[in-house]
Specification:
The complex is a heterotrimer of chains A (309), B (335) and C (329). Chain A has 309 residues and is mainly alpha-helical. Helix content of chain A is 71%, strand content 1%. The longest helix of chain A has 37 residues, at 98-134. Chain B has 335 residues and is mainly alpha-helical. Helices cover 75% and strands 1% of the residues of chain B. A two-stranded antiparallel ribbon of chain B has the order 1-2. The longest helix of chain B has 39 residues, at 240-278. Chain C contains eleven helices and twelve strands. Chain C is globular, with a radius of gyration of 21 Å. Classes of the chains: A mainly alpha (309), B mainly alpha (335), C alpha/beta (329). Chains in contact: A-B, B-C. The interface between A and B is large, with 39 and 43 residues.
């Protein structure tokens, strides 16, 4: 890919900044889909909100000194008790500002989702590379494990692990990593099996480079495109699964409420028509997941070599 | 075929063994087995007697054998909470979960197949694009939140449907006529009230599968329509209906049935979420409650039962697949 | 047009409206197929011969469309017929055989299903009679124990046997015209020979006309009565097979004949037509073949029309092979 890009672009482009690098082509192809761009923008905004939550949220929803129980279950748009700001999205049973709750909740959801996806990616990709590169028995053992794991749905595996380990943020992350690593391993192995037969790997082997160097410096970069696609999709899945587990009361503790727990919190009040406690965190969750999926869809099209002409 | 069946059964047996080992290690080795299996109220003497009685003084592999032997005899321990055999608790709640899962699968096919077919036959029409956008949403929507919203709109705001529970149930395998609707296996879908209770949970559980069926069907239709045999069928002067519903549809049905069948297991697993939202008294709600109060014998029983169910489903799907696709059928005969 | 003509195609134009532009897959194609005669439609892949075949059956799919010309079947214009009327003709009076026998039979339907549905689509008979008809036709194309074979699935047949089944399906209603799209290309040479011989026998005994689409000149030589050579969506030469193959008028036809390996002397390098088939998307103005033509001259920059250069033998060329090159230069 890089060869052809240089070969074609160099004579045609006299100005240096116009040279079409693979990265630039990737950017321009990604930008072809307006929907994907929208997803990117929305996700960027969400990420910024999550990062800046402590500075931009109207209140710290977990500082009990700032909460006023008298403000409990106020409708969206109500003025707060000390007349300093409006509860744009209403308050929950504790008198907590839902907007602030969502901003802080996004922090936890994104951290747990992205964090577990990253760990799963490292674990899964390493095992997948190992399976493809070493082959033989290592390959069989790893892939059997992958098959076994993938034959059970994610929620069941997560439930099983949380049943063994108990609740807690760390345990949720462990559960998500165990649920997800197999997808990465399978993807990387598939690509690596094709790539390792290419000449550049043979060349590296002839130079007697150390195995780990061939695996991570030569093989891995060429397995990246499908890995990026899977990772994007898995972040969305991890966020959704974490929210589900938290909703079921098996996820993060009440002191660190993610979006799922916020939604669960509003469950009992919904039957009396106080919809906002569950509704808005759900919208935030939905927008986050959709924006990631939209990017993922386009990434899959752009990075899929089969669709290249 | 028989050879194939036997080979598959042996494979399945190995998976069950592996899973029982994982569950055993998970529950008995990671947690403290004494705490798990003996009620916290027991005094020291009782505890020691129980430890001996349960064989917890034996080496781990012997304990595993004991666990396995008991499991084979249908003894997966007693629930601390209900003080009943865990297995019986699970089995009592299984019909509720099964009818929900089957209802959802039925809905997914009923809604997904026609929509997917339409989107595949007219990929560029606005209606198809709407269908596809809807299916992306179906993949992205968090199930539990959709459940809540369904309750909010249809139960709270509009008051059309009951919000939670299973409603009136009716017995089929019991003594119908003598003691109607009181003994035997209870089903909701046989009464109007029960059906009304089932609508929202089934739709909720089906949401993800509908999207899946739409996408599979559409992709299948688009691929199949390009095949020579479809053009040949048209060249034979067949009616469009026959080409679509016999030549195209039968080819698509194979992958769709396989996936939906395989997904039945995951539907049962995911009903955990839907049951919690709609307070549907199935085994999913039981397992969540049990995890929350650490009723580990029930957890073990649930996990073992669901593993068995999965393996059975996979086996049945494989066999159905080979019945539907003559090519697979023959290959298996050969080997 | 003679009274015996089964099919007469006049100035047929079938274009594909793709996002990249209009692809003129078939552009001004005319030919006639007489009753009981075989027309060989020759050309490289991408020359528009298959699209021509599909146009006759009214099976051109979007984004393609017949944009001009007439297809007269016993004097009736097929391009003006409703889909319903076309369906009654297809598989009944006009049948088609496809190139790849591995792909033409539906893999999940038994052979009897696929044959009986064809009978029932056009004839109001009982299933039993339809089955009888299917069995007889299978026997006719040389399939042993047809009763047993009816109950089989396509994958249980070899490629040659499958093509026989496809031919049998085409013959079920004793059509007046069969469009055969390279039906022997995917088969072994020996099986190819058998099928050719049988098709020829059928055509002469039943009076069925055939359009035999192929890129293989040797097949045309042995089978066809007339031949039309296509290049880049146009017929560049047509006439009786003996004349066209023996005294080709168009340089492209001459090139095709010259590149048949058996015609080259042993030890000589194989002859070939230089260059590649042009993209139909952006055809250069003038003669489409001029970029590859050894005889091209300035006059070729304008579009040549098809002319009758010998009795019954037409070519689309300003400088045909029977004129010295100096004339144009």
């Amino acid at each position: 890919m890089s060869q052809s890009a240089i070969g074609e672009a160099a004579p045609a482009a006299p100005r240096k900044d116009k040279v079409e690098t693979p990265f630039r082509r990737f950017v321009s192809e990604f930008a072809e889909s307006k929907v994907a761009l929208l997803g990117l923008v929305v996700f960027a905004i969400i990420a910024i909100i999550a990062i800046l939550a402590p500075w931009i949220a109207p209140q710290n929803p977990y500082d009990l000194a700032q909460l006023d129980i008298m403000d409990g279950r106020l409708e969206p748009g109500s003025r707060n008790g000390s007349d300093t700001f409006n509860y744009l999205l209403g308050t929950d049973d504790q008198g907590r500002d839902m907007l602030s709750g969502i901003m802080y909740g996004l922090r936890i959801s994104l951290t747990v989702g992205a964090g577990s996806a990253l760990i799963a990616c490292i674990v899964g990709a390493s095992l997948g590379l190992l399976a493809a590169y070493v082959g033989k028995r290592t390959d069989t053992v790893i892939m059997r494990l992958v098959d076994l794991q993938l034959s059970f749905p994610s929620i069941l595996v997560a439930l099983m692990i949380l049943a063994f380990l108990g609740k807690g943020v760390m345990n949720v992350v462990i559960a998500l990593v165990i649920v997800e690593w197999a997808y990465y391993a399978r993807t990387v192995r598939g690509t690596a099996l094709v790539e390792r037969r290419r000449e550049y790997i043979e060349a590296a082997q002839c130079l007697a480079l150390p195995t780990h160097r061939i695996m991570f410096r030569h093989l891995l970069p060429n397995c990246l495109p499908p890995l990026i696609v899977i990772a994007t999709m898995q972040v969305a899945r991890a966020i959704a699964l974490e929210a589900t587990l938290s909703f079921l009361g098996l996820g993060v503790p009440i002191t660190e409420p993610s979006l799922g727990l916020l939604i669960a919190n509003g469950y009992e009040y919904m039957l009396s028509g106080k919809y906002w406690i569950s509704f808005y965190p759900g919208i935030a969750l939905l927008v986050t997941i959709v924006s990631i999926n939209l990017m993922g869809d386009q990434l899959r099209d752009v990075l899929n070599p089969r669709l290249k002409k | 075929m028989t050879v194939y069946l036997v080979r598959r059964l042996i494979q399945a047996l190995f998976v069950v063994l592996a899973m029982s080992l994982i569950v055993f290690i998970g529950v008995y080795a990671i947690g403290d087995p004494v705490e798990i299996l003996i009620s916290p109220d027991a005094d020291q003497i009782e505890r020691e007697r129980a430890i001996r009685a349960l064989g917890l003084d034996l080496p781990l592999w012997q304990q595993y054998l004991v666990f396995l032997t008991n499991a084979l005899q249908g003894d997966l321990g007693r629930s601390f909470v209900f003080n009943e055999p865990a297995l019986r608790l699970i089995l009592q709640r299984m019909p509720a979960t099964l009818e929900l899962a089957f209802g959802a699968t039925f809905l997914a096919l009923l809604i997904g197949l026609p929509l997917g077919l339409y989107a595949g036959l007219r990929p560029n029409s606005p209606a198809s694009k709407t269908i596809m956008a809807g299916s992306i949403l179906g993949f992205s929507l968090p199930t539990f939140w959709v459940g809540l919203m369904l309750i909010m709109v249809f139960a709270v705001q509009l008051g059309w449907l009951p919000s939670t529970g299973r409603g009136e149930t009716c017995s089929v395998l019991g003594f119908i006529g003598i003691t109607p609707c009181s003994s035997g296996v209870q089903w909701s879908f046989l009464t109007t009230d029960g059906l009304a209770h089932m609508v929202m949970p089934a739709i909720n559980l089906a949401l993800f599968k509908i999207s899946l069926v739409i996408r599979l069907t559409r992709a299948g239709v688009r691929e199949t329509m390009l095949m020579d045999y479809v053009k040949f069928a048209r060249a034979k002067g067949l009616s469009p209906a026959r080409v679509t519903f016999v030549h195209v549809f039968k080819n698509i049905l194979i992958p769709v049935v396989t996936v939906v069948g395989l997904e039945l297991g995951s539907t049962i697993a995911f009903s955990v979420v839907t049951e919690s939202v709609f307070a549907w008294p199935g085994m999913g709600k039981l397992i969540i409650d049990s995890i929350n109060v650490l009723d580990r014998p029930v957890i073990v029983a649930y996990l073992m039962i669901i593993v068995l169910m999965f393996i059975t489903i996979n086996l049945v799907v494989d066999l159905t697949y080979s019945l539907l696709d003559p090519r697979v059928r023959l290959e298996n005969k050969g080997t | 047009m003679s009274a015996a003509a089964t099919l007469e195609v006049r100035n047929l134009r079938t274009h594909f409206f793709t996002r990249a532009g209009v692809v003129k897959a078939v552009d001004d194609v005319s030919f006639t197929v007489e009753r009981g005669k075989v027309l060989g439609l020759v050309g490289e892949s991408g020359s528009g011969k298959t699209v021509t075949g599909f146009s006759v059956l009214g099976l051109v799919d979007s984004p393609g469309r017949i944009v001009g010309g007439e297809i007269l079947f016993h004097g009736r214009d097929l391009t003006k017929m409703s889909e319903r009327e076309m369906r009654d003709l297809r598989g009944n009076r006009i049948a088609m055989i496809f190139q790849d026998p591995m792909m033409t039979l539906n893999p999940v339907l038994r052979v009897d299903t696929q044959m009986i549905e064809t009978v029932l689509a056009h004839k109001k008979v009982s299933r039993e009679e339809a089955r009888q008809r299917a069995r007889d036709t299978l026997g006719m194309v040389g399939i042993p124990s047809p009763d047993e074979r009816l109950m089989s699935y396509p994958h249980q047949f070899s490629g040659g046997m499958r093509q026989r089944v496809a031919i049998a399906i085409a013959l079920l209603h004793e059509p007046e015209l069969i469009v055969a799209d390279e039906p022997t290309t995917a088969l072994d040479v020996t099986i190819q020979g058998q099928i050719l011989a049988e098709v020829q026998k059928l055509a002469s005994t039943t009076g069925t006309s055939l359009i035999w689409i192929t890129h293989d000149l040797s097949v045309v030589a042995g089978l066809a009565d007339d031949v039309a050579v296509m290049y880049a969506g146009r017929v560049v030469e047509k006439g009786p097979v003996s004349q066209v193959l023996d005294v080709p008028l168009h340089p492209y036809t001459a090139g095709l004949i010259g590149s048949v390996p058996s015609r080259n002397k042993r030890g000589e390098p194989l002859r070939q037509i230089p260059g590649m088939t042009p993209s139909l998307l952006n055809l250069p103005p003038g003669c489409a073949f001029r970029t590859r033509c050894p005889r091209a001259a300035d006059v070729c920059l304008t579009e040549p029309g098809i002319r009758e250069l010998q009795p019954g033998h037409e070519a689309r060329c300003f400088i045909p092979m029977n004129t010295p090159t100096e004339q144009a230069a």
